[in-house]
Amino acid sequence: MTALEFGYAINNMTKSMKPFALRLTKDMEQANDLIQETVLKAFSNREKFSEGTNLKAWLFTIMKNTFITNYQRMVRRKTFIDTTENLHFINSTENIAQNSAYGSFAMADIVSQISKLDDVYKEPFMMHYRGFKYHEIAEKLDIPIGTVKNRIHIARKELKDALKIYA
Questions:
Q1: Per-residue pLDDT reduced to its tens digit, 109-143
Q2: The CATH number of the domain where 35 resides is what?
Q3: Domain of 42?
Q4: I need a labelling partner for 27 at 20 to 30 A (CA). Which of 87, 108, 138, 156 fits?
Q5: How far is the C-alpha of 137 from the C-alpha of 146, rounded, in Å?
Q6: Is residue 86 pLDDT above 80, yes or no?
Q7: How many Å apart are CA 17 and CA 60, to the nearest integer?
């Protein structure tokens, strides 16, 4: 494959790379930068691409690895080394003290709202919360799996509406 053909094939793939880049970065500008960096790496390493293999998968792998490398580099920049004799590595973003009273109030409100749920919705919701799978709940309550899913969905919706102050 010539450099021109390779460049054309990569150019055709850039539109399909954007959703994946957005999912990784959660930011449009960073996604565009990631795509640009991926295309640059792919073009500069085109001799490593085996013709006849999946170009899209190769590009997505480059993108994922580039994102991971950039993320690790960013984390390293935010980490500083304590030069005392203990030689601890301290992450600078973990110096936040939180008030646990807020969590206690929130938990009390959540428990209160769950107790207000109709038993028809509360029982499948609590079973799902405790780790039961949908099919296990359906068997235990002797109801169809679709009904289980619907009741859990309704319970979540009611709780979300009742607890929107914490959103």
A1: 889 999 999 999 999 999 999 999 999 999 999 99
A2: 1.10.1740.10
A3: 3-78
A4: 156
A5: 11
A6: no
A7: 7
